[in-house]
Amino acid sequence: MPLVRLRAEVPIFSIADEFLVRAVPLSEWANLDAAAELHGTGYEGTAPVFVTASFVEEKIDRSLEETYEMAWRAFEQSSYVFYLCLLLASAARIPEPELSIAYYRDPAALVPISRVGPFGYEALAYVRNEHPIEVDALTLQRAEKLLLALQESAGPLLNVPEVERARDVLYGFAYPEYEPITDFLHCVAAVENLLVPEPVQGIQATLRRRAVALLGPKLGKRADEFIAAVYELRSRLAHGDDTFAARERLARLWPGVDPAAPWHLGRSLLCVVLSTLIEAARGAVLAGASAATIATALDRGDGACVFAKLTP
After folding, report:
1. CB of 228 closer than 8 Å to CB of 202
2. Distance (Å, rounded) from C-alpha 157 to C-alpha 61?
3. What pLDDT, on a 0 to 100 scale, did the predictor assign at position 80?
4. For residue 205, which of 192, 216, 219, 186 has the smallest C-alpha distance?
5. What is the arrangement of strands in the sheet containing 12-15, beginning at the earlier edge strand?
6. Residue 152 gets which letter from DSSP?
7. How do the domains of the chain map onto residue ranges?
8. For residue 137, what are the β-bridge partners?
9. Cβ-count burial 3-13 (b if 16+ within 10 Å, e if not)
10. Fewer CB within 10 Å: C terminus or N terminus of the chain?
11. What was the pLDDT predicted at 118?
C-alpha cells in the first residue's frame, strides 16, 4: 500500500477477522517477488505495508488461471472497502493500493503470481520522495469499526450517487501530485453536494444547519463555527479573494493547524461526514435512502437518526 507505514508498536493488525495489515520483511518479500534482490535497499528503506487475505474454497474443478481471477476479483472488491475505511479513519491522502504490486499465491502453483499496477517498483521511490503516512492502532480500530458497519447493513449507503461522488473525490485526489489546495476545494464541494443536493436559497446557511445536526455530537459547540470557517475559506478560494483572515480563523478553531496550510481540513470534514453517516446506517433500513432523505432528516435535527433503525 503506497505511502503507508505502520507505527513500530503495531507490527501486525487483524481487521474484522478478514485482513491482516502488516509490514512484510525483505526476506518474505523475496519469496513473493524474484525482483526483490534488485530493489532490496529501497524496500527496506520504505517498509511498505501489505494488506493480506486468504481465500479458502471447497473442492473445485477449475484451472489455476480461473482460480486466480476469481480470488483476485474477490480480494480487489473487499480490499477496496477496507481502503475506503482506512481513508475515512485517517483522513489522509493515501494512494490506491492497486497502483503498486499485488501478489497471489496458490498452493498448486510453483511461484506466486503478481499483478503490477502503474507504480510498479517505482512505488518504493515514490514513498522515499514523500512523507510516509504513519498508521497507528487507533486509526486501524476506527477503520475496522467502519468496515464492520458496512458489512452489517450500511453497505448500500455507498450506492447513493452523492456518496459515490464523495468516495471518488477521496480516491482521486489522494495522490501527492495534486496540490493540497485542490484537494481541499474538491472535498468541501463533495460535502456540499452530499448535504445540500437540492437547489436552495442560502446554501451556506443550509449546509451549516445540516452539518451541525449531523456532526454536533462529535464536534460539540465548535461545529457550527468550524463548518462556517471551512466554507468561507472555500468560497474565498473559489472567487479569488484574499484568504488570510479565513485561514487565521480556522487555525484558531483547530489547535495545531498551520494558518498557512489548513488545506487538509477539507478532507477531514468530508471524512467525518461520511464516517458519521456510515455509523448512523449501522443496523438501519437503507431501502430508498438518498441524499434527499438524509437532508430531510437533518432538517428535522435528527443527526443521530438519519436512517430508520431495524427493529429487533
Report:
1. no
2. 36
3. 87
4. 192
5. 12-15, 19-23, 49-52
6. I
7. 4-135, 160-309
8. none
9. bbbbeeebeeb
10. C
11. 83
- The residue with cell 446557511 is 205
Rounded Cα gap, residues 262 and 254, in angstroms: 9
How far is it, in rounded angstroms, from Cα 50 to Cα 21?
6
- Tell me the pLDDT tens digit for each residue of 187-231: 999 999 999 999 889 899 999 999 999 998 888 878 899 999 999
- What are the residue ranges in the chain where pLDDT is below 70? 2, 55-68, 107-109, 125-131, 302-312
Q: Which three cell numbers stand for residue 148?
A: 464492520
The CA dihedral of 86, 89, 95, 96, to the nearest 10 degrees, is 30
Residues 6+ apart with CB under 8 A from 80: 97
CB neighbours of residue 36 within 10 Å: 16
Residue 120 phi/psi, 5-degree rounding, is: 55, -140
99-112 pLDDT per residue, tens = 888 888 776 667 78
Cell of 76: 480487489
Exposure b/e, 148-169, CB count within 10 A at least 16 = b: ebbeebbebbbebebbeebbeb
3-state DSSP call for residue 263?
coil
Query: Quick one: how far is CA 221 from the chain centroid?
Result: 26
How many whole angstroms separate alpha carbon 241 and alpha carbon 246? 10
The set of cell numbers assigned to 198 is 437540492
Residues 6+ apart with CB under 8 A from 62: 70
> What ranges make up the beta strands (E) of 98-251?
101-104, 113-116, 133-135
Beta strands per DSSP E along the chain? 4-6, 12-15, 19-23, 49-52, 101-104, 113-116, 133-135, 284-285, 308-309
CA pair distance 250, 134, nearest whole angstrom: 25
309: which 3 cell numbers? 433503525
